[in-house]
Amino acid sequence: MAASAPDPEPPAPEVESTAVAPAPPPPTPPSPQQPEKPAPAGKVVMETQPESLATPPPEQVPGTAKGARGYVVLTIGLPGSGKTTWFKRRGVTPLSSDLLRTLLFDDIEEQRWQGLVFSTLRSLLRARLIAKMPWNYVDATNLSAHERRQWIKMAKSFGYEVQAVFFDVPLEVCLERNKRRERTVSEDIMRKMAERLRAPDFKEGFSKITVVRVKGAPASGAGAASAGGE
Ligand SMILES: Nc1ncnc2c1ncn2[C@@H]1O[C@H](COP(=O)(O)OP(=O)(O)OP(=O)(O)O)[C@@H](O)[C@H]1O
Ligand SMILES: [Mg+2]
Predict the structure, then answer these.
(1) Superfamily of domain 43-56+64-227
(2) What phi and psi, each to the nearest 5 degrees, are found at residue 204?
(3) Which CA distances in Å does 18 have to 77, 196, 205, 219, 229?
């Protein structure tokens, strides 16, 4: 993500302290595209970001959709909150604007054609849903309910459940990680994005919300309370 125009929608063993779901069994290698057993509707799952990026993710139990055709999983989080890293650790290739910019323009940093990038992203998800793909991931910042609504609407219209993975990572941590990256976002833009960030709410239509936090760090304060309970 370039400093000038950020994407508008744009490691302890990873023991998940589970708010309402049972603790996961011991870690095993990831199962691409099928990260975990679907939790019952309306559940919040807490997860702690590993301090070492080499830490394997928790066991991923293949799940099959019951009652739904499949799942659409949306990430929600600031640049540097760890969304793409979360997918990489699970061996999952999500739909993302970075992937699209590489495919369309041979340049991950191309910042023109934002509308084209996001309309193509939506078309790709639609194609996956038409093809009845069971697990579908969108790696984007999805800061506001407004930005998330179009994805949720599409998923539901195809009979899919929608899950959120909310990276409730303090702005200061994101800023620090951002400084160490190759492609940085300006601090000013990061702060503006943090103001726009709203925690996901079940009222938006999510059937499950996973909250990913940094070990020992406070919640970001982005209205996390609404994702912290049922
Ligand atoms: N759990 C973690 N602990 C320490 N550093 C991390 C962790 N997760 C990610 N990082 C580091 O933070 C930086 C940003 O991570 P990542 O690219 O996953 O963020 P992102 O949320 O996808 O950002 P963007 O929205 O800009 O794509 C990377 O350098 C990554 O190595
Ligand atoms: Mg990313």
Answers:
(1) P-loop containing nucleotide triphosphate hydrolases (3.40.50.300)
(2) -70, -15
(3) 20, 27, 21, 16, 12
Whether the model pTM is above 0.70: yes
Instruction: Name the residue with tokens 């300006």.
Output: 186
Task: For residues 110 and 164, give the distance between their C-alpha atoms in angstroms, rounded to a whole number.
Answer: 27
75 lines ligand 1 (CB under 6 A): no
Q: Exposure string (b/e) for 101-126, b if CB count within 10 Å is 16 or more?
A: beeeeeebeebeebeebbebbeebbe
Which atom of ligand 1 is nearest to 11's Cα? 1
Q: What is the pLDDT of residues 151-202, one digit of tens each?
A: 999 999 999 999 999 999 999 999 999 999 998 999 999 999 999 999 999 9
Decide whether any atom of ligand 1 lies within 6 Å of the 57 Cβ. no
Domain borders along the chain are 43-56+64-227
